[in-house]
Amino acid sequence: MLINRKEVEQIAVLAKLEVNAAEIENITQSLDAVVNMINHINEVDTKDVKPMANPLDAVQRLRADVVTETSNKEVLLALAANADEDYYLVPTVIE
């Protein structure tokens, strides 16, 4: 077992989590399984494997980068619940 009960209790204290004894045992087993899985993945020989960012050979189709002159200011201000001239008015959240 790579993760023990004491380590889980310490992690809970650091994370300010309140866990009971039954939860600690369950968390210990879960974390140990995760660490074992990661160790198993780390053992795989990837020396001759080419790194990839995407498993598909698709190319991202992008729209043309063209400047457009659109002014929706009036339309958007008309949709606002409360506006004054060119500004959106919102309720005070922090005093």
Record keyword descriptors for this entry:
single chain; 95 residues; mainly alpha; two-stranded antiparallel ribbon; 3 helices; 2 strands
Shape descriptor reads flat
Tell me, rounded to a whole number, the average pLDDT.
Answer: 90
User: Could you tell me how far the N terminus lies from the C terminus, measured between alpha carbons in angstroms?
Assistant: 52 Å
Cα-atom radius of gyration? 27 Å
Low-confidence stretches: none
Approximately how much beta-strand content do the residues carry? Answer: under 5%
Helix fraction, binned, reads 40-55%
**Main sheet characteristics:** 2 strands, antiparallel
> Strand-and-helix sequence, N→C?
HHHEE
Tell me what the structure shows.
It is built from three helices and two strands. It is mainly alpha-helical. It has a domain of 38 residues. It has a two-stranded antiparallel ribbon with strand order 1-2. Strand 1 and strand 2 form a beta hairpin. The longest helix is centred in the first third of the chain and has 22 residues. The mean pLDDT is 90.
Tell me the layout of helices and strands.
Elements: H1 5-14, H2 21-42, H3 73-79, E1 83-84, E2 87-88
Helix pairs in contact: 1-2
In a few lines, what is going on in this structure?
Strands 1-2 form a two-stranded antiparallel sheet. The chain starts with a helix and ends in a 7-residue tail after the last strand. The longest helix has 22 residues, at 21-42.
